[in-house]
Amino acid sequence: MRIEPVFLFDLDGTLVDSVYQHVLAWKEALDAEGIDLSVWRIHRKIGMSGGLFTNQLLRETGLDISAERSERLRQLHAAAYRKFGAQIRPLPGARELLSWLSNADIRWAIATSGRMETASVNLAALGVDPAKVPVVTRDQVKYAKPDPDLFLAAAERLGCSTETAVVVGDSIWDMLAATRCRALGVGLLSGGYGPDELRQAGAIRVYDDPADLLVHIDEVGGRR
């Protein structure tokens, strides 16, 4: 009996070209709070939850980040990110990949560490209606990546187990979460992480971007 795969996609840096807008939005939020953190350090944390971002920030700066300040940072980031909304574009091949999967009757869902207040900007750019497509955001789970909750919830929305799923993401946090829920992790370079980093975090295959993945879709369970 053939096991039909399902695809669970991260959003930022995987389907939409938005990682660096998130970096700049976090930089603006941190600057507004008088917190000095290098841009490259911010980039290394994109893909994890805002709560974990704050924990990492505390570890690196030694600052006392109260719950109130953490929430203020989140709101400042969301406001700054929305200003970049007009710049957000789908990554090459993203729409074509999702369309191909749908036409091939292969189920797919989106699972993002972002809350809907920022994810809605990306979904609009991608042309995905969350009323018609399973989309799981940080608002809907207890823990975000690298915990597996987002992918577990997305698989549940599709009525399947993560053990039959292919998780597609651009960050080490996606690959770690995929490993923890026994899914196959496929990494994309479109978020700025290197191929060795993604493989060390659990990726079984690494491609440039959604367009490259579509060309090689048969390698990860999509039959042409």
Overview of this structure, please?
It comes from Enhydrobacter aerosaccus. InterPro entries: HAD-like_sf (IPR036412), HAD-like_SPP (IPR051806), HAD-SF_hydro_IA (IPR006439), HAD_sf (IPR023214), PGP-like_dom2 (IPR023198). This is Haloacid dehalogenase superfamily, subfamily IA, variant 3 with third motif having DD or ED/haloacid dehalogenase superfamily, subfamily IA, variant 1 with third motif having Dx(3-4)D or Dx(3-4)E. The chain folds into two domains: 6-18 and 88-220, HAD superfamily/HAD-like (Rossmann fold), CATH 3.40.50; 19-86, Putative phosphatase, domain 2 (DNA polymerase, domain 1), CATH 1.10.150. It is 45% helix and 11% strand. The protein is built from ten helices and six strands. The chain has helices at 19-32, 39-43, 50-61, 67-83, 94-103, 116-126, 149-158, 172-180, 195-200, 210-215, and strands at 6-9, 108-111, 135-136, 165-169, 184-188, 203-207. The chain has a six-stranded parallel β-sheet with strand order 3-2-1-4-5-6, with helices on both faces. The model has no long low-confidence stretch (mean pLDDT 90).
State which percent range the strand residues make up: 5-15%
Counting structural domains, the number is: 2
- CATH-wise, what's the superfamily of the largest domain? HAD superfamily/HAD-like
Termini gap: 19 Å
* CATH topology-level name of the largest domain: Rossmann fold
Question: In the CATH hierarchy, what is the architecture of the largest domain at level 2?
Answer: 3-Layer(aba) Sandwich
C-alpha Rg, in Å? Answer: 17 Å
Low-pLDDT runs: none
Total beta strand runs: 6
Structural class category = alpha/beta
